[in-house]
């Protein structure tokens, strides 16, 4: 159920930061140089970047960048937490949000979140920098995502890491991407020798459809996203001539019960002030009806879309704790 309050209770700082990023996205769309494009110069002014950090300052996770394919700027940022535990760490393969059109693994918002995620779980977080639309349309992002998993499987060697306990995770568009990569990994299980996908963490996933949901029509004027912006993102991402019922957007049109090896353990996160909440609940119900065990729905009634990018919001540490608990419960579970 969505929150009964008319507006979310969030800090003025969070409102300002969300508003600035939304402004940058709108300006980048409206000041584009061609009909189907985005002004990257404008977007860079609002998407501050953070370099990797090799030191573990105050116990925080260290990070380093690893190139996968320079021809498509596909690379990984690896976060390793400080821990005295002797048990090998699980791995979280993370896909950032941004409507498939903006942000990156080095965006300051995501660098802070992934560093916290690595430290709080604890786990090695592998944040994937994938190609962006509209310059690169679907299925480029899914190809990048699965290629990143295969690269981790075949190339990267990390001490104290258990690749047999990998979790795919992502938020918004990254939640959509994580789902489709999970399907590809399940269908191509023979292609992975060391990496075993144990679970899926879907944080406010970005799914769509031609028919408007009740929450999409009702939640006008909430922070971060609106239907005009999401419609533009779908038009920019989906193959030319496709509508929002394309399987990339409307995943409920697929039969996931027939995908042998799709992770049984799935965590779906919903915000009470997210216009996409109805689709996210439907995704959870669809997984349950498909016979997947270990599917969990976490609802934060006061949460707006992308709340986790603001460390000062009370729901952010709650989410980190819930992810930690989910991974600890399911780290030993095999495929369904």
Features:
single chain; 336 residues; alpha/beta; 9 helices; 8 strands; 19% strand; disordered N terminus
Question: What do you see in this structure?
Answer:
The protein is an alpha/beta fold and 336 residues long. Helices cover 34% and strands 19% of the residues. An eight-stranded mixed β-sheet has the order 1-2-4-3-5-6-7-8, sandwiched between helices. A hairpin with a 4-residue loop joins strand 1 and strand 2. The radius of gyration is 19 Å and the shape is globular. The two termini are 29 Å apart. The relative contact order is 0.15. The N terminus is likely disordered.
Unreliable segments of 5+ consecutive residues: 1-5
Beta strand count: 8
Instruction: Supply the helix-strand structural class.
Output: alpha/beta
Number of helices: 9
Order of helices and strands: HHEEEHEHEHEHHEHEH
Specify the oligomeric state: single chain
Distance from N terminus to C terminus (CA atoms, Å) equals: 29 Å
Strand content: 15-25%
């Amino acid at each position: 159920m969505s929150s009964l309050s008319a507006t979310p209770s969030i800090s003025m700082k969070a409102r300002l930061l969300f508003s600035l990023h939304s402004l940058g996205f709108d300006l980048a769309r409206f000041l584009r140089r061609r009909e189907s494009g985005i002004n990257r110069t404008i977007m860079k002014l609002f998407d501050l970047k953070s370099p990797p950090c090799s030191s573990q300052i105050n116990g925080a996770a260290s990070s380093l960048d690893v190139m996968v394919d320079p021809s498509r700027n596909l690379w990984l940022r690896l976060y390793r937490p400080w821990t005295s535990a002797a048990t090998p760490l699980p791995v979280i393969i993370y896909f950032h949000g941004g409507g498939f059109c903006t942000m990156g693994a080095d965006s300051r918002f995501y660098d802070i979140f992934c560093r916290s995620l690595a430290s709080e779980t604890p786990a090695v977080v592998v944040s994937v920098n994938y190609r962006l639309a509209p310059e690169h349309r679907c299925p480029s992002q899914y190809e990048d995502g699965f290629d990143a998993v295969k690269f981790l499987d075949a190339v990267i060697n990390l001490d104290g890491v258990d690749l047999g306990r990998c979790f795919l995770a992502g938020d918004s568009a990254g939640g959509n991407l994580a789902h489709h990569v999970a399907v590809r990994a399940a269908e191509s299980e023979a292609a992975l020798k060391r990496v075993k996908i144990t679970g899926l963490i879907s944080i406010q996933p970005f799914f769509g459809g031609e028919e408007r949901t009740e929450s999409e029509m009702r939640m006008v004027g909430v922070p971060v996203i609106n239907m005009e912006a999401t419609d533009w993102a779908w038009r920019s991402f989906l193959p030319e001539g496709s509508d929002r019922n394309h399987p990339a957007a409307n995943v409920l049109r697929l039969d996931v019960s027939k995908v042998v090896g799709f992770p049984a353990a799935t965590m779906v996160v919903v915000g009470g002030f997210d216009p996409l909440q109805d689709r996210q609940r439907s995704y959870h119900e669809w997984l349950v009806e498909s016979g997947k065990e270990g599917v969990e729905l976490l609802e934060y009634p006061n949460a707006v879309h992308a709340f986790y990018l603001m460390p000062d919001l009370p729901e952010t540490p709650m989410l980190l704790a819930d992810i930690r608990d989910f991974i600890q419960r399911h780290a030993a579970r095999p495929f369904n």
